[in-house]
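User: I'm putting together a small comparison set for a docking exercise, and I want a reference complex before I start. The sequence is below, and the ligand is protoporphyrin IX containing FE. Could you produce the 3D structure with the ligand included, as structure tokens?
Assistant: Of course. I'll restate your input first, then give the structure tokens for the complex.
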Amino acid sequence: MTTTADTQALLGQLLDPSNRADPYPAYAQIRTRGPLLLPEAHLTVFSSFTECDEVLRHPSSASDRMKSTLAQRAVANGEVERPLGPPGFLFLDPPDHTRLRRLVSKAFVPKVVKALEPDIIAMVDEMLDRVARAGHFDVIADLAHPLPVAVICRLLGVPIEDEPKFSRASALLAQGLDPFITTTGGLPDGFDERMAAAVWLRDYVHGLIDERRIEPREDLISGLIAAEEDGDQLTEDEIVATCNLLLIAGHETTVNLIANAILAMLRHPAQWTALAADPSRVSAVIEETMRYDPPVQLVGRIAGEDMTIGGTAGGERSDRGIVTVAKGDTMMLLLAAAHRDPASADRPDEFDPDRETIRHLGFGKGPHFCLGAPLARLEASVALSAVTARFPKTRLAGEPVYKPNLTLRGMDSLAVDLV
Ligand code: HEM
């Protein structure tokens, strides 16, 4: 029987930054134990593919953190809720989620994303020209980080000169997605700094909105101000929350996808050479990276009602038994563990873009499925096919250095030799 102390120790391993370079043995241990229950923390941790898939598709799964028993208790104790206004729609449920997602989706229709392709190609070429001139290459600093930042700035209409400031805020806020309070009951280091970053970003976006109200442009902020459907409009707070969500969601995640794919291929050099010779392999490399080393390692849900998980999911029978989750409990879904579930993939620990079917939940599933997935895939496909074709003999120059983040796990630097 797994005790609370065992469970806490297992989750502690995940939070431990020294496991960031390779969290997969810890995920495997957790997955083997089956769902982990921490009743005092009102938390259940799921780590198999079928369980995560079932929770994501379940009609009683909620995304609004204020519905959790712990948040409700904090409200009852008179603690301030949502001091910075409403959250982005990622953390909302219907009807607000449906309404805001519909308004924003218009900006991500395939035609709009496709129109960005020539710009993305030009940006990547320029970045790789710079690398060729310099003769040294840090994958994060020189390609994986600047590309998504430039694209999301262009899309939203954030002046590129302001990028370093908002990049810093976005990096701090990304750390805030880690489940410290849920698993440890305490605040992580740097909480005040993150709150300050959130306040700065909110004020910064308010400023941009004021400018666009006076002088609209062809960008998403102007689009959100003008967005109207059936007489419905976004409030100023909703526009700010949506811009913040897009800045963060469209940024850290795509950096990690590009860098994780490059690292996986360099550790399997035949994959690098194969992609350099045949750019049509790029989609398989991207999907396998999303499975093997996903940029978003975990997501959370709140049980909107009492729920039972297990039994059948996606037509498959689970042999892990049925788990009851009480209304208001938090469910942590370890997607990175689920992707290496032997029940969902053959040879799950191998990076193999040629596998017959690649199943992953890396962009989520159900009503919150990633709105930016086509954009992320486009950016990654341009970057990965260009970098392999241009530098077919690239080799790793050392071990990557990881950021402390668990949820949006990713590298701080990845030095390579162009040979
Ligand atoms: C490789 C890159 C990306 C990955 C791995 C990723 C992953 C995810 C995941 C897992 C979710 C669902 C979270 C949940 O269910 O709780 C999500 C939602 C979302 N993503 Fe992405 N994302 C990426 C890129 C982007 C980009 C480029 C944008 C936009 C510019 C974006 C915008 C969003 C938005 C707006 C949502 C919320 C959707 C909703 O709640 O309805 N993402 N993403």
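DSSP finds 19 helices and 16 strands in the chain. Residues 191-214 form the longest helix (24 residues).
User: Thanks, that's exactly what I needed.
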